[in-house]
Amino acid sequence: MGERRQKIRALFHELSPREYMYFPKGSLEMGRPGHFSRIEVFHLVVSMFVLTLSFSILLTRNSLFSGDLFSLMHAMPFSFLGILTAFFVHELSHKFMAQKYGLWSEFRMFPLGLLLAFLLAFFAPFIFAAPGAVMFRGEARDFEMGRIAAAGSMANIAIAMITFPFYILVFFEVDPWGKIFGFVCLVNALLATFNLLPLGSLDGVKIIRWNGIVWSLLFILSLFVTLLILFRAPSFLI
C-alpha cells in the first residue's frame, strides 16, 4: 500500500495560509523553486530586524536603559550573523524542501511571538523566540512531511558542526572572532535541539512520525553539540 496522503496545513497549525496572510494581496500561486513573494520578504525582514535588536539588547545587558547606544550598535552585527545563520537558514531550508515536493511554501511572521522576544530581551536573562513559521499548502506523503520538518534542524546542525572546530581550535582566544563563531555555533545548536523536541507542533513530532531512527540521530547530535559549546563557551555578553 502506498503511504497515506494528507494535507499539510502549516507549522502554525491548523490555519490555512490565506487565513494567516495579514495582507489582502497575498497569493497562493506556486512560484518557481526559490521564489519569494513581496509579502514573504517583508515578513522575513521584519522578523530578522526584531530578533537582531532583541538579541543585541540581551547581549549588552539592556544597554538601552543606560543610554549606551554604542554598545548596542556594536552588538547588532554580531547578533545579525547569529540570526542570519540560524533562524533565516532554518526557515529557508523548510521552504526549499517543501518547494522541492511541489508545495506552496512561504514564511509568515508571528507578531505576538516577536513582541514576546523583544520584551524578554529587557526583562529576562534569556530569549524565547517564536518569530513565525514557514507555511505550507498542498498534499504530501508522510516521508515528505518528515523530510521537510528535518531540513531546518539539519541545516542548523551542519552550521554548528562547521563553526565549532573553528571556535575551539582557531578563534577561541581571538576577539571578536571567537565570540562570533561561538555565538553562531551556540544559537544554531540550541535552535536545532529545541525544534527537535517531540512536543506539540515542533518539527520533532513530524520527524518521529516519519522515521524515529532519523529523529534519534538528529536529536542526539544536536544535543551533543549544544552541550559541547555550552561547556566550552565563555560569556557572550558584550
What is the chain-wise order of helices and strands? EHHHEHEHHHH
- What structural class do you assign from the helix and strand content? mainly alpha
Count of beta strands: 3
Strand content: 5-15%
Outline: globular
Q: How would a textbook summarize the main sheet?
A: 3 strands, antiparallel
Q: Rg from C-alpha positions?
A: 18 Å
Domains counted in the coordinates: how many? 2
Tell me what you see in this structure:
By secondary structure, the protein is mainly alpha-helical. It has 2 domains: 37-140, no CATH class; 157-233, no CATH class. It contains 8 helices and 3 strands. It has helices at residues 38-59, 63-66, 69-100, 111-123, 142-170, 177-195, 203-210, 212-232, and strands at residues 5-10, 104-109, 132-141. Strands 1-3-2 form a 3-stranded antiparallel β-sheet. The longest helix is centred in the middle third of the chain and has 32 residues, at 69-100. The chain starts with a strand and ends in a 6-residue tail after the last helix.
